Amino acid sequence: MKKIIINGLGTIGASVIDVIPGMEVLGIVNDELEIGSTQGKNKKIPVIGHLDNLPDLLKPDDVFLIITFRDMKNERVQWNQLNKLNISIEKYVNVIHPNVIIPDDYCSLGRGIFMAANVQLSTEVKISDNCVFYGNSFIGHDTIIDKFAIVANHASIGARVEIGKGVHIGSNSTIREGVKIGDFSLIGMGSVVLNDIPKNSIAAGVPAKIIGSK
């Protein structure tokens, strides 16, 4: 059985892992939580370390890592911290809820992909490593999503969209087909994105406009 360490707040990731045969939650790693504390009101999940502890925690062959959480203000910091640890990509595991819809023969997934319930992918979608998709999000055909991106609940991404590294797509937002969103940009919840968004931008509204930078 694969033992999974969650880098994040834990409860969402654990709820998905618990319904996948052959996977067991070992604990949570999060720099903002106290080691020895627990997360979750009903099922208690132990905090077993901070990011710097990951190389030692991942030494056993049957222990793997999944990232389920992004700090919207500090994604680049989290990205840099994980890169400095130089964790092998083979130590990241895909955690995909059983009712996610993926046309397997027509999509490409990297490692460390987390997908909650009711995510749906269309054909020819390409997703790079360590991306997170929360419940009921939709990805249109021929869309490309780079590393460390997050797509929140009920977000809808159109066809032929290009999502850059570390991008955060807010809940209930809509991205029009053909749009490009630059690295580490943030799309606010409920936004409708009709035009390209440059890297390091904060965009929100209907239609979305750039309201700041990161």
Please give the largest β-sheet.
8 strands, mixed
- Contiguous low-pLDDT stretches (5 residues minimum) are none
Q: What would you report as the Rg, rounded to the nearest angstrom?
A: 17 Å
State the distance separating the first and last CA atoms: 41 Å
Can you walk through the features of this model?
By secondary structure, the protein is mainly beta. The protein folds into two domains: 2-91, Rossmann fold; 95-213, UDP N-Acetylglucosamine Acyltransferase, domain 1 (3 Solenoid). It has helices at residues 11-17, 54-57, 75-85, and strands at residues 2-7, 23-29, 38-39, 45-49, 63-67, 95-96, 108-109, 114-115, 120-121, 126-127, 132-133, 138-139, 144-145, 150-151, 156-157, 162-163, 168-169, 174-175, 180-181, 186-187, 192-193, 201-204, 209-213. The strands form four sheets. The chain has an eight-stranded mixed sheet with strand order 6-8-11-14-17-20-22-23, covered by helices on one side. A hairpin with a 4-residue loop joins strand 22 and strand 23. The longest helix is centred in the middle third of the chain and has 11 residues, at 75-85. It is globular, with a radius of gyration of 17 Å.
Characterize this entry briefly:
10% of the residues lie in helices and 31% in strands. It is mainly beta. The protein has two domains: 2-91, Rossmann fold, CATH 3.40.50; 95-213, 3 Solenoid (UDP N-Acetylglucosamine Acyltransferase, domain 1), CATH 2.160.10.10.
Which key phrases capture this entry?
214 residues; globular; UDP N-Acetylglucosamine Acyltransferase, domain 1; 8-stranded mixed β-sheet; 5-stranded mixed β-sheet; single chain; Rossmann fold; mainly beta
